[in-house]
Amino acid sequence: MAPTKTVAKRGRGKLPDDPEEFKATLGEHLEELRTRVFRVLGVLILAFTGAWYLEGPAYKYFNSVVNRNIHTSADHPVIEAFQNALDPFMLIFKLSGLMALIVTIPFAVLQLWGFIKPGLKPNERKAVSSIGPWTAILFAVGVGFCWLIIPQAIQWFVGYLNDFPGAHLNQEPGLMVFFVLKMLLAFGLAFQLPLIVYLLGRIGILQPDTLLKYWRHATTVIFILAMIITPSNDPGSMLMMAIPLSLLFIVSVYIVKWTVKPRAQIESDASDGS
């Protein structure tokens, strides 16, 4: 029996149905991984360069939203002050880096998909490809939902300042802007949970009946993850993330239950096809 032919150029042409037919040496895997990492770093550098010039308008917009809600809830003077001469530069640098990272994430995901795709079976490739558009949609839904509750969250925090008559709020510039951006990013990423559940059910790793049986355990895990992911770590923000995620989890489990074949049926179809 002839040895399996090594494919040197990945990602070109039609991929074989059997991942075993698409073998590469460890050196070839590392070479491709290095190439894709350098691509991501290149895009990150370009995005950082662009974000450096767009940071000013972006900061003014988000800071105006923050200050508008702070002044709505606080009856005390609010002063923004840097602590040392390096802080203005570091604020621009960190904000530009965060904006560049957000822009680069979709490209990095595409590169990761291109790297692992040849090692997947046809049904697994189809499952991952089918959720691609929904990734962007749910990310946008998560960001939009967070944007709706951000004003109430800021007003809730600042409202406690009124319990201290005569106090002034000396706030470091950019602190709340970073809070808003991190919250938006966290909600966008957290709303990918239904897709992960659907994907694992679609390829037969998780069964809907098992997920429904242990829904209390899953809900507990969701609340713990929300506590870790939420930048502010306060109970209000955690609940605002955990409750919709728990509902999305239940919905996604029922979608898997209604649309995906059981694992035994998948294996039976695969054996019949072979």
What's the arrangement of secondary structure elements?
Blueprint: H1 26-73, E1 78-80, H2 87-116, H3 122-130, H4 132-159, E2 169-171, H5 175-190, H6 193-202, H7 208-213, H8 215-229, H9 235-259, H10 263-273
Structure characterization notes:
With 274 residues, the chain is an all-alpha fold. The longest helix is centred in the first third of the chain and has 48 residues, at 26-73. The protein has a two-stranded parallel ribbon. Helix 1 (26-73) packs across helix 2, helix 1 packs parallel to helix 4 (132-159) and helix 4 packs antiparallel against helix 5 (175-190). The protein is built from ten helices and two strands. Residues 1-9 have low confidence and may be disordered. The chain starts with 25 loop residues before the first helix and ends with a helix.
Order of helices and strands: HEHHHEHHHHHH
Distance between the termini: 20 Å
- The low-confidence parts are 1-9
Structural class: mainly alpha
The pLDDT mean sits at 77
Main sheet strand line-up? 1-2
Helix % is: over 70%
Strand content: under 5%
Tally of strands: 2
Shape: flat
Largest sheet: 2 strands, parallel
Q: What is the gyration radius calculated from CA atoms?
A: 24 Å
The tally of helices reads 10
